[in-house]
Write a structure and sequence with these properties.
The complex is a heterodimer of chains A (386) and B (228).
Chain A (H helix, E strand, L loop, with lengths): L1 H10 L1 H38 L4 E5 L3 H9 L8 E2 L1 H8 L3 E14 L4 E8 L3 H4 L17 E4 L1 H7 L6 E4 L4 E8 L11 E4 H7 L5 E2 L1 E6 L5 H8 L5 E5 H44 L1 H9 L4 H39 L15 H27 L3 H7 L1
Parallel strand pairs in A: 4-8, 5-7
Antiparallel strand pairs in A: 1-10, 1-11, 2-9, 3-4, 3-10, 5-8, 6-7
Helix pairs in contact in A: 1-11, 2-9, 2-11, 2-12, 9-11, 9-12, 10-13, 11-12
Chain B lengths: L3 H24 L11 H8 L11 H8 L5 E8 L4 H8 L9 E9 L2 E12 L4 E8 L5 E8 L4 H8 L1 H4 L25 H23 L10 E4 L2
Antiparallel strand pairs in B: 1-2, 1-6, 2-3, 3-4, 4-5
Helix pairs in contact in B: 4-7
The chains are: A alpha+beta (386), B alpha+beta (228).
Chain lengths: 386, 228
């Protein structure tokens, strides 16, 4: 029966091909969407986990904006008192609390902004991806600077070179250069926290405190305790991730609507193709009935044709998603907030199976009525019409 | 060819798989030219190089150095085929920066009246960006430091008309000796001053080689700009 169904589809190649293409595009869009959703969530989760922190203490204001700005290496207009660091370090659930003071010095005539970040030793526990280039070492004294890879290349600095801040009159020695990490750290100048506070006249002030807990399960209690720190507020990365995923979810809903529309159109296309096939083949179907084919056999033949058409279309759609998905991913990466560096498009077996089932299900549903119509044909009437 | 559909589908699947797995492989093929790994070349390649230096204030520089200009055109001189000549003229192997030279040809109407070239050099305290205005004979007609991170006294000395003005009239073949052809500077400014002189001589040499050989004149992405 499968062979017969395939032969029937081949008799109208152009129509079958166009219908197949419609199903392929619909299934491809659906596959990309589902794969992107899963990949983004997994990638973002892994990236936030890799940051080595579970929460941040930021100054009062919009917590998500503040945390996102700090994570992306941008400064805040307000700052935290140093007492917030003491409170964080004394919290029983906290294993590491890393203070940061971020200062941006715009250089408009040069089309760039110098970003100075005051840190202490504790930052190394929270930035596990940091690798110092050969010959580098951690701050030996207060007059040392560690440069991000891109900052070092732009300023043409090597370990041991001098580095001067014209705005503050501070001369520093480059003690280290970070390996390229693909994060905003690449373009920053890291100096000891106390040096940064003195250079920028911010004694006892911080921009943010990154916190890692002894056990992530303690996050609710720790968050409640630290929330009481004067002038500070807590933002957990899980909350941040939830916010970003909500944003993505809204976009995803819109795209899903488009995918549903595409699937619906493809279903109508299959329905039209199969109905036209029944009308064209009235005489043939009448002969089949006349020579002994049962109503069930005729029904099954048409249903198999519809399923075969959509199964091939689904297969082509999955191939399309695998081939074109990377290009779509690159375009999408530029549009989403905090896009993870790793691949966003994870076309797993689950996603492929779901999409194939949707495609085949659509084919089956769209083929039922034409198949039922075909099975109802009376041989004598069919032959007379022919 | 009794059953063409399976063949067409099969061919489609094979083509899709080929596109999926083979095209990225081709894309990964290195496109950098071959470089002989002599110790000198390795040392030159290990020298830290920054990206291309942009021309940050074209309008102001045109008003200052080429007041009669009506516009300019961006060109890139591709010099990677001239490594031997560059090495001979500079006295050391070319760095990664020396393989292509962005040149801003200054125009009066359609007539070229000079060029502006820029160069990043390694100053004592940070990068320094040099802008050189060059006449049609390859002689410097003006110089400016568009970015530097030096202490105030050093910056003042290096930006002084007495020091930068001494660049005027120099060409790629001139002598650029500090304290002899160019005024001496205080000890604190020596490193940066020498780097600037070497940068100026290098970039003028590259322009000279590119212009004499008429390499890539306008071929590699010529982009016109109207001025004022």
């Amino acid at each position: 029966m499968l062979f017969l169904a395939l032969r029937n589809l081949m008799r109208r190649r152009l129509r079958s091909g166009l219908t197949l293409l419609g199903v392929a595009v619909a299934v491809g869009v659906l596959a990309c969407l589902l794969a992107f959703g899963q990949g983004y969530q997994r990638g973002l989760s892994r990236e936030l986990d890799g940051m080595g922190m579970q929460m941040m203490l930021v100054p009062l204001g919009c917590p998500y904006d503040a945390a996102a700005r700090v994570l992306k290496g941008k400064t805040l207009d307000v700052s935290l008192p140093q007492s917030a660091l003491t409170a964080a370090r004394h919290d029983p659930a906290v294993t590491h609390a890393a203070p940061m003071l971020l200062v941006a010095l715009p250089r408009p005539s040069e089309g760039r902004t110098d970003l100075w970040v005051g840190v202490d030793q504790s930052i190394r526990a929270l930035k596990p991806w940091w690798k110092l280039k050969a010959g580098s070492r951690w701050f030996p004294n207060g007059d040392a600077v560690i440069l991000g890879a891109e900052a070092a290349a732009t300023e043409m600095r090597q370990v041991g070179d001098s580095f001067y801040s014209p705005e503050t009159g501070k001369r520093l020695k480059v003690c280290g250069i970070l390996e390229r990490s693909g994060t905003s750290d690449d373009s920053q100048f890291f100096i000891p926290l106390a040096t940064a506070q003195a250079m920028f006249h911010q004694p006892g002030r911080l921009t943010a405190i990154a916190i890692r807990l002894k056990d992530p399960a303690l996050i609710t209690d720790a968050s409640a305790r630290l929330q009481r720190t004067p002038g500070a507020q807590v933002v957990t990365l899980a909350e941040m991730m939830g916010t970003f995923l909500n944003l993505i979810g809204a976009v995803r809903t819109l795209v899903l609507a488009i995918a549903i529309l595409a699937v619906t159109i493809s279903a109508l296309s299959v329905f039209n193709t199969m109905l036209a096939a029944v009308l064209e083949r009235t005489g043939e179907l009448g002969v089949m009935r006349a020579v002994g084919a049962s109503r069930g056999q005729v029904f099954r033949l048409l249903a198999v044709e519809a399923v075969l058409l959509t199964a091939l279309g689904s297969l082509a759609g999955l191939l399309l998603a695998a081939v074109a998905g990377r290009a779509i991913e690159q375009a999408v990466k530029g549009l989403v907030p905090l896009a993870p560096a790793e691949s966003l498009l994870t076309l797993t077996g689950d996603v492929a199976m779901q999409c194939a089932l949707v495609g085949i299900g659509v084919g089956l549903a769209a083929g039922l009525y034409p198949a039922w119509q075909a099975s109802r044909l009376q041989p004598a009437r069919a032959l007379r019409l022919e | 060819m009794a059953k063409p559909l399976p063949w067409i589908l099969g061919a489609g699947v094979v083509a899709a798989l080929a596109a999926r797995f083979l095209l990225p492989q081709f894309a990964r093929e290195p496109d950098t030219p071959f470089l002989e790994l002599t110790p000198q070349n390795v040392a030159a390649q290990q020298t830290e190089t920054a990206g291309l230096c942009p021309w940050r204030a074209p309008e102001a520089d045109l008003r200052r150095f080429f007041p009669q200009a009506t516009g300019f055109r961006d060109e890139t001189l591709i010099l990677s085929g001239q490594r031997l000549e560059i090495a001979r003229r500079l006295g050391h192997p070319p760095t990664g920066e020396d393989h292509a030279l962005p040149v801003h040809r200054i125009l009066q109407g359609q007539l070229p009246i000079g060029a502006v070239i820029t160069r990043r050099v390694k100053g004592e305290s940070g990068v320094i960006e040099l802008v050189l205005a060059v006449g049609t004979e390859g002689q410097v007609v003006g110089a400016r430091l568009q970015r530097l991170r030096e202490p105030e006294d050093v910056a003042k000395c290096l930006q002084s008309p007495a020091w930068l003005g001494a660049f005027d009239g120099k060409t790629a073949r001139s002598s650029w000796q500090l304290g002899k052809d160019i005024p001496a500077v205080p000890a604190a400014a020596q490193t940066s001053a020498k780097a600037l002189l070497e940068g100026a001589r290098t970039v003028l040499t590259l322009l000279d080689i590119g212009t004499l050989l008429d390499i890539g004149s306008g071929a590699a992405g010529s982009r016109p700009h109207s001025h004022l």
